[in-house]
Fold this sequence. Notes:
Blueprint: H1 3-16, E1 19-20, E2 24-30, E3 37-42, E4 48-52, E5 57-62, E6 67-72, E7 79-84, E8 90-94, E9 99-103, E10 110-114, E11 124-129, E12 135-139, E13 143-147, E14 154-158, E15 165-170, E16 176-180, E17 185-189, E18 208-213, E19 219-223, E20 228-233, E21 238-243, E22 251-256, E23 262-266, E24 271-276, E25 281-286, E26 294-300, E27 303-308, E28 313-319
Parallel strand pairs: 1-25
Antiparallel strand pairs: 2-28, 3-4, 4-5, 5-6, 7-8, 8-9, 9-10, 11-12, 12-13, 13-14, 15-16, 16-17, 18-19, 19-20, 20-21, 22-23, 23-24, 24-25, 26-27, 27-28
Amino acid sequence: MKRPALLAVMLSMLAAGPALSEGVEIRSFPVPDGAHPHDVAPAPDGSVWYTAQRQGALGRLDPATGKVEQIPLGRGSAPHGVIVGPDGQAWVTDGGLNAIVAVHPRTRKITTYPLPETARNANLNTAAFDGENVLWFTGQAGYIGRLDPGTGAMRTWRAPRGRGPYGIDATPAGEIWFASLAGSYIARIERPSGAVQPLDPPTADGSPRRVWSDSRGVLWFSEWNGARLGRFDPASDAWKEWRLPGANPAPYAVYVDERDKVWISDFGANAMLRFDPATETFESFPHDRDGAAVRQILGRPGEVWAAESGTDRLTVYRYR
């Protein structure tokens, strides 16, 4: 191919793809080899929790020093999700133990809440606290559930369409929404009854994987099989979708930061993306190692944290 023609092709490819952003500092921190960090949760004290799924432990990183500590959660543990609760504890959904596990940040005391016998092998996924400090959680085997940390009372329900409940989040008003990967819907959980009415996105069989609320209670979700970023506004009952850039996008995790910018992990591009709803444009932050496999994203003001399960690292994106 002649040079002018090659240049034209390169320019057209660049125009079709996402913009590369400036003003974002990216830093990665190694965790123990084989930890397979699945989820990550920044804590108020500046530390960062992560689930060492393949080592049955909850990890804690001190970004100031790079020091990592891992807390074994018990024989058979395979922790999936972790969040920081209103009580300051790390709350873990442990699929191996089939239990919710709380870890105190100072004493490292572990409290385990087993699921009832009616929900054995629930394949626990993720959790979120509602506006009344009740913990709601999902199980991919086809379950949703709630735990009242104050009393220890737990209840589970079978989810509509069986298998699939995956990502879960609370809106600023304290409402709980979850995404069903296999069921291909998103839904709000009626509290405290646990009733669920599935809502189907415009793309059939798009398989929403994770869901996150913005500051106004609008839901954003990643469509694993649909290769799209989705948006649903409960107030207007309006849907909108955007196909991710690139040849073979595979959106996994989604997170909305404090400025209502949407972050998405794209397995297909091996990159982190940031979407600006105001301009409807994507920015790309390619990973510096192959197969990063970011399965969950969380943040705090000025920072977005990602767990690279494929490279045994935690990576932070700091922005102005």
